[in-house]
UniProtKB/TrEMBL annotation, chain A:
Residues 1-53 are annotated as: Disordered. Keywords: Oxidoreductase, Thiamine pyrophosphate. It comes from Sphingopyxis panaciterrulae. GO terms for biological process: branched-chain amino acid catabolic process. This is 2-oxoisovalerate dehydrogenase subunit alpha. Residues 95-387 form the Dehydrogenase E1 component domain.
From TrEMBL, chain B:
Its cofactor is thiamine diphosphate. This is 3-methyl-2-oxobutanoate dehydrogenase (2-methylpropanoyl-transferring). One of its GO terms (biological process) is branched-chain amino acid catabolic process. Keywords: Oxidoreductase. Residues 9-184 form the Transketolase-like pyrimidine-binding domain. Pfam families: Transket_pyr, Transketolase_C. SMART domains: Transket_pyr. Its EC number is 1.2.4.4. It comes from Sphingopyxis panaciterrulae. It comes from the Bacteria. InterPro entries: THDP-binding, Transketo_C/PFOR_II, Transketolase-like_Pyr-bd, Transketolase_C. Signal peptide: none annotated. GO terms for molecular function: branched-chain 2-oxo acid dehydrogenase activity.
Length: 436, 342
């Protein structure tokens, strides 16, 4: 057969024009480098104006490129965004963030001890879930991604239930079906976590549309990372939200890293993630995500806006993922080790503590006592949970639960497969074996 | 046989009536999709519904199938019973992740914390010169998803009763509407005049509420010589050929592919000892492969001939060569001859 020449030879310039070049984003620092963030723009703490909640989106575009701040680096709350929270409220916020950190540390260790398959910490990002949850009503609906365990903590969800889920043990009300941390807690306004990224975005919009269409007063909030803002679902959600003026708050937690891919692979080299709002004509706020009061204030603004039928808001939480993506990740293989400590916005827990101390409402002694108390609480709860089993040490759910809830009623083909699976157990464990 | 409260309806009118009845009975039902609101849908399935039930119950959506299905999942979580339309089944793919990984899994992964009582209506199939992007039959993609029910009606009476049952179902249902037979049953002879539904007995449709339970096949025609398994448009094509050739075939209209009415299939094949499966979708890994395997597993010792499949070819649906692609009279007759030869 004669060879057919390609219609357009590859790799040969079509003309004498200069050759094109393809840009592949590259983070500034890799392992071994010394990170220097001194050129990160940090607007003055009171430089960002606070528009009224009903302001038209196109009249406040500059907020997508600024930075909502409340706490300066000396622990003083300043400027128009200061939510002026009472000391008790601030102490509650600090307590939740410290509890979250203690919980994360303990569960990370449990994974390393082989008690579960997987864990994800939220170190450095605690404010983005805890403070934003505290700024909305408890009856509002949260559609989390996988790193928002702070929502459950801030809504006083029982820690033992979180642990039972992580261990897939007898107490796991999800029957061991989900990967650890993919909680579901409808009574706490917490939607079932999916492992597929950003799918919760249009779902949150649908929930908000339903609430609005029924004349309800509840709003929806949803989280994703800057990495998954590249998913089509993100853009579908923003389109639907702007079309129907849905009462929803979109949170993009820009923690700089999506596993090993830096924010440049989601478009972060070109513009801010808050600026995604501009093209959709919805309000956008860019917030210091390590400043719990700024997160609170921005969320409160967005919640008021949504609740008064002024539509959705996109909030970019500018923060840093201080730990690996998950227990399956090794960040030392792709980023500079000192990035977290060099991050110019500090640590959210330390900054809130500093603020309370500056107010004269907290001190080192109380802080240490609370840390010890929370670590003990987590440890005690962990022991209770482990009495119900840990992953891989015996199977904790009745076998037939594998086939339940695929449908409301079990069709014949699943019943047959269930019978087959039960028969297999008899082959494995002997004829006397019985399902639990 | 028209009862007092029945009316002659084509399939579009019957589908419209099912949504109308459910919008009236249940204030959590919402109907949405591209062009479904004021205009009433490109096939007119939602004509008049917005005017009657209001804009927050029946409305247009952006051209974004991921958004349509994703938003419907969220509405279901709130407590609504959404009935999204995907304008052509060929357009469902951008929404497939929301269907496969979200809608279908929500009940299971949340152990009943959240459910997805959604019915996705979508016209499918060829025979209308729709080319490769308006003619596909993706039913086996749907039946391969665990957690979704797949329903395909073949006449106005069934379409209404099945759609009402689908909307009332607490699990996600994909309701595939054979668009070739929206306006009348199709003989398979594209060069003959189209017969309207009004001449067909199943066009007598009660105006009020009734349901046909999912998971039940219908015997279209009783016979002893061979069992023909079909659904949607192909039920009518098969019936035409069989009657023309005077074959004593039993035709089962499956109506629901998942959950499948395996009892009806087994009973019929055990009686006839022969089985022909007909679908318009591509052959390889088509739903016919599943049916053939089930018949072989369950009825092998009753079979007197190999199970035959008549399907579309494994090519994209061609525009100009549509009738060479379509599993029409010649392909069906050839298969029947082969299966009945011994």
């Amino acid at each position: 057969m004669p060879e057919t020449p390609p219609k357009r030879p590859m790799g040969r310039p079509a003309s004498n024009l200069p050759p094109l070049s393809l840009h592949i984003p590259e983070p500034r620092y890799r392992p071994g480098d010394t990170p220097d963030f001194s050129d990160v723009e940090i607007p003055a703490v009171d430089a960002t104006p606070r528009p009224g909640e009903a302001t038209k989106a196109d009249a406040m575009r500059e907020l997508c490129y600024g930075l909502v701040r409340v706490l300066d680096f000396d622990g003083q709350a300043k400027g128009p965004w200061n939510p002026n929270l009472a000391p008790d409220r601030l102490r509650t916020m600090l307590r939740y963030m410290m509890l979250l950190r203690a919980f994360d540390d303990r569960m990370f260790r449990a994974q390393r001890q082989g008690k579960t398959s997987f864990y994800m910490k939220s170190t450095g990002e605690e404010a983005t879930s805890v403070a934003s949850t505290m700024a909305i009503d408890r009856s509002d609906m949260c559609f989390p991604s996988y790193r928002q365990q702070g929502i459950l903590i801030a809504r006083d969800y029982p820690l033992i239930q979180m642990m039972n889920q992580i261990y897939s043990n007898r107490g796991d009300h999800l029957l061991g079906r989900q990967l650890p941390i993919m909680y579901s807690a409808p009574e706490h306004g917490f939607f079932s976590v999916s492992g597929n990224l950003a799918t919760q975005y249009p779902q949150a919009v649908g929930w908000a549309m339903a609430s609005a269409s029924k004349g309800d007063s509840r709003i929806a909030t949803v989280w994703c990372g800057e990495g998954s803002s590249a998913e089509g679902d993100f853009h579908s959600a923003l389109t639907f939200a702007t079309v129907y003026n849905a009462p929803v708050i979109f949170n993009v937690v820009n923690n700089q890293w999506a596993i090993s891919s830096f924010s440049g692979f989601a478009g972060g080299e070109r513009t801010t993630f808050a600026a995604r709002a501009v093209g959709y004509g919805i309000a956008g706020l860019r917030v210091d995500g390590n400043d719990a009061l700024a997160v609170y204030a921005a969320t409160q603004w967005a919640a008021d806006r949504a609740r008064t039928n002024n539509g959705p808001t996109l909030i970019e939480h500018f923060t840093y993922r201080a730990e690996g993506h998950s227990t399956s990740d090794d960040p030392s293989a792709y980023r500079a080790a000192q990035e977290a400590s060099a991050w110019p916005f500090g640590d959210p827990v330390a900054r809130l503590r500093q603020h309370l101390e500056a107010l004269g409402e907290w001190d080192a002694e109380r802080h240490e006592a609370q840390r010890t108390e929370l670590e003990e609480l987590v440890k005690t709860t962990q022991k209770q949970s482990e009495k119900l089993g840990v992953l891989g040490h015996g199977m904790h759910q009745p076998f037939e639960t594998m086939f339940q809830d695929v449908f409301e009623d079990m069709p014949w083909h699943l019943q047959e497969q269930c019978d087959q699976m039960l028969a297999e157990q008899k082959t494995k464990f002997g004829a006397d074996w019985k399902p639990e | 046989m028209m009862s007092a409260d029945s009316k002659t309806m084509n399939m579009i009118e019957a589908i419209n009536s099912a949504m109308d009845v459910m919008l009236g009975r249940d204030d959590t039902v919402v109907v949405m999709g591209e062009d479904v609101g004021y205009f009433g849908g490109v096939f007119r399935a939602t004509a008049g519904l917005q005017k009657k039930h209001g804009k927050t119950r029946v409305f247009d959506t952006p051209i974004n199938e991921c958004g349509i299905i994703g938003v419907a999942v969220g509405m279901g979580a709130y407590g609504l019973r959404p009935v999204p339309e995907i304008q052509f089944a060929d357009y469902i793919y951008p929404g497939l992740d929301q269907l496969v990984s979200e809608a279908a899994r929500l009940r299971y992964r949340s152990a009943n914390d959240f459910i997805c009582p959604m019915t996705v209506r979508t016209p499918f199939g060829g025979g209308i010169f729709g080319g490769q992007t308006h003619s596909q039959s993706p039913e086996s993609i749907m039946t391969h998803i665990c957690g979704v029910k797949t329903v395909i009606p073949s006449n106005p009476y069934d379409a209404k009763g099945l759609l009402i049952a689908a909307i009332e179902d607490n699990d996600p249902v994909v309701f595939l509407e054979p668009k070739r037979i929206y306006n009348g049953p199709f003989s398979g002879y594209y060069d003959r005049p189209v017969e309207p539904w009004s001449k067909h007995v199943a066009s007598a449709v009660p105006e009020g509420y009734y349901r046909i339970d999912l998971g039940k096949a219908a015997t279209v025609r009783e016979g002893e010589a061979v069992t023909v398994l079909a659904y949607g448009t192909m039920v009518h094509v098969a019936k035409t050929i069989i009657e023309e050739r005077g074959i004593d075939a039993e035709i089962l209209d499956l109506r629901t592919l998942l959950p499948l009415d395996i009892e009806a299939i087994e009973a019929s094949v055990r009686k006839t000892g022969r089985c022909l499966i007909i679908h318009e979708a591509t052959r390889t890994s088509g739903f016919g492969a599943e049916l053939a395997a089930l018949v072989q597993e369950r009825c092998f010792y009753h079979l007197e001939a190999p199970v035959e499949r008549v399907t579309g070819f494994d090519t994209p649906y061609p525009h100009s060569l549509e009738w060479a692609y379509f599993p029409g009279p010649v392909r069906i007759a050839t298969a029947l001859d082969k299966i009945l030869k011994d």
